[in-house]
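dumping this here so i dont lose it
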């Protein structure tokens, strides 16, 4: 089973690298990298069989990736990919598919693995996990939807989105995504399942958020500094 996981993961990484070489853009690489998750989940379900918990987890993964694909393909202009295409050196772009596919295929799918192989009856942690997943989904998708609507309105060019979910923290879409990996960890019923949200929050804390904050400071100047002093970065009203 793990051989299949490794082969699928590295094939998706290779396909992502080829897409960057051909298009000079990162969009297809991101799509391929994130969709590694549904392929690996499918391998787990094929190996252990489809039960109630594994069916629910599979549905959660499919819903998550349906949203991600929509945002990466249809709403790409409202994501950070445009900035990555403009600002990252060519060499750094080729690291994206390798890092992303392997992070998704192994770290992010780890709680899914433990959840799929778990045949015990549903417990309170499963119900809490599903609830947190729904909250995370609303915040994750809702934040990107608000950003898209804001940027499509006339007169918003050069203005900061600081209302709605974006008044709660500066990166609510990232926070919603983090909650989704918390939900998978809860449904894994394994301490190893918590590797996924840990890797997720470290990626945001040391890579995605610093990059976006730096680019926003360059673009918005003092307006961004005022927003930064007023609104927390990641966890609403806390951090």
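and the seq i came up w/
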């Amino acid at each position: 089973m793990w051989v299949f996981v490794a082969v699928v993961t590295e094939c998706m990484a290779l396909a992502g690298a080829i897409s960057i070489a051909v298009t000079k853009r990162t969009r297809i690489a991101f799509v391929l990298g994130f969709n590694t998750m549904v392929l690996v989940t499918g391998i787990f379900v094929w190996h252990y069989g489809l039960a109630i918990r594994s069916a629910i987890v599979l549905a959660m993964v499919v819903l998550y990736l349906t949203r991600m694909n929509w945002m990466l393909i249809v709403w790409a202009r409202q994501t950070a990919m445009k900035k990555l295409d403009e600002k990252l050196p060519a060499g750094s772009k080729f690291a994206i598919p390798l890092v992303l596919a392997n992070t998704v295929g192994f770290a992010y799918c780890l709680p899914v693995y433990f959840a799929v192989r778990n045949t015990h009856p549903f417990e309170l942690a499963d119900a809490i996990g599903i609830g947190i997943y729904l909250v995370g989904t609303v915040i994750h998708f809702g934040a990107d939807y608000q950003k898209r609507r804001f940027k499509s309105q006339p007169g918003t060019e050069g203005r900061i989105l600081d209302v709605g979910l974006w008044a709660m923290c500066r990166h609510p879409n990232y926070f919603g995504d983090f909650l989704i990996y918390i939900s998978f960890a809860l449904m894994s019923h394994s301490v190893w399942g918590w590797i996924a949200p840990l890797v997720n929050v470290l990626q945001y804390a040391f890579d995605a958020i610093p990059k976006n904050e730096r680019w926003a400071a360059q673009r918005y100047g003092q307006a961004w500094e005022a927003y930064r002093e007023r609104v927390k970065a990641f966890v609403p009203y806390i951090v």
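The mean pLDDT is 93.
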